[in-house]
UniProtKB/TrEMBL annotation:
Gene3D superfamilies: 3.40.50.450, Phosphofructokinase domain. This is ATP-dependent 6-phosphofructokinase. InterPro entries: ATP_PFK (IPR022953), ATP_PFK_prok-type (IPR012003), PFKA_ATP_prok (IPR012828), Phosphofructokinase_CS (IPR015912), Phosphofructokinase_dom (IPR000023), PKF_sf (IPR035966). CDD domains: Bacterial_PFK. It catalyses: beta-D-fructose 6-phosphate + ATP = beta-D-fructose 1,6-bisphosphate + ADP + H(+). The gene is pfkA.
Length: 319
């Protein structure tokens, strides 16, 4: 293999740049030419492809977002779109592709693999919802952003003796809510993976109130439902002063944490190693701090699961 490509796709996540840097530098270290494909699968179809040099990825390791930009591309979900993408890769002589992104992006890489084109997936999403890896690139940074927000809101919650509902990202996966709720000392954490009863939340709030608690923090993953609606219900049922804060897109950006930079560097370089060894059709991850790779054709069939023991612990600690 002489030429490889790299693209980022789907939602951006902090650490994607560190992963791009690792792919480029590791590739060049081993004598490869590395090409950047801009704007995800959309740029792949239209041929927005440029050779990257060592200096092209200088001064990006600490930056959030992605220097290759990212996009959602409906056309790539069609066979015609996928074939156009492969034609562009062939035109540039690119023999293997590293795809950095979330589950949807992995689907794209899976399709390329099914067409016989060598691809390696690198898990880049803040949601931590990709099977086959303990952590995804960007999760740790997003988590720390959320915790900073919770700590600040807690000051106000205490000063005003209020109940706060904080809605965080996570449509299908509750990892951000669970980890930030546990780290932020939330009284209640609502995640898509676990059913909840509003009466149970009310009971817990009232018990806390009776023993003199000055504030309560409730973390809601967006996949559970609207934080605003849950907040309204709590107010109606308790008459406690309740406020809602929807954190939104601040959770996506920002300088990646040291953990995400190291993870991205390791995973990006490992993806190149696999391509150099002629192993396409894989996706990389980290499990028990070891680099691992799995069959990309099979990995998406495995469900992502949250750590139920952490959920149980969060309930025990907020009794
Ligand atoms: P995040 O989880 O952060 O949102 P993601 O990678 O899951 O990231 P998606 O928007 O789901 O984000 O997917 C990104 C892109 O991957 C899509 O816009 C599309 O181009 C491609 N893609 C998604 N599903 C498929 C599919 N079934 N076949 C081919 N390509 C796909």
């Amino acid at each position: 293999m002489k030429k490889i490509g790299v693209l980022t796709s789907g939602g951006d996540s902090p650490g994607m740049n560190a992963a791009i840097r690792a792919v480029v530098r590791k590739g060049i270290f081993h004598g490869l030419e590395v090409y950047g494909i801009y704007n995800g699968y959309s740029g792949l179809i239209s041929g927005k492809i440029q050779k990257l040099e060592l200096g092209s990825v200088g001064d990006i390791i600490h930056r959030g977002g992605t220097m290759l930009y990212t996009a959602r591309c409906e056309e790539f979900k069609t066979i015609e779109g996928q074939k156009k993408g492969i034609e562009q890769l062939k035109k540039f002589g690119i023999e293997g592709l590293v795809v950095i992104g979330g589950n949807g992006s992995y689907m794209g890489a899976k399709k390329l693999t099914e067409h016989g084109y060598p691809c390696v997936g690198v898990p880049g999403t803040i949601d931590n919802d990709i099977p086959g890896t303990d952590y995804t690139i960007g999760f740790d940074t997003a988590l720390n952003t959320v915790i900073q927000a919770i700590d600040k809101i807690r000051d106000t919650a205490t000063s005003h003796e209020r109940t706060y509902v904080i809605e965080v990202m996570g449509r299908d996966a509750g990892d951000i809510a669970l980890w930030s709720g546990l780290a932020g000392g939330a009284e209640t954490i609502l995640i898509p993976e676990a059913d909840f009863k509003i009466e149970e939340i009310i009971d817990r709030l009232k018990r806390g109130h009776e023993r003199g608690k000055k504030h309560s923090i409730i973390i809601v993953a967006e996949g559970v439902g609207s934080g605003v609606e849950i907040g309204q219900k709590i107010k109606e049922m308790t008459n406690f002063e309740t406020r809602v804060s929807v954190l939104g897109h601040i959770q996506r950006g920002g300088s990646p944490t040291a953990f995400d930079r190291v993870l991205a560097s390791r995973l990006g370089a490992y993806a190149v190693e696999l391509l150099l060894n002629g192993k396409g059709g894989r996706c990389v991850g980290i499990q028990n701090n070891q680099l691992v790779d799995h069959d990309i054709l099979e990995i998406l069939d495995q469900p992502h699961t949250v750590d139920k023991s952490m959920y149980k612990l969060s309930k025990e600690l907020s009794i």
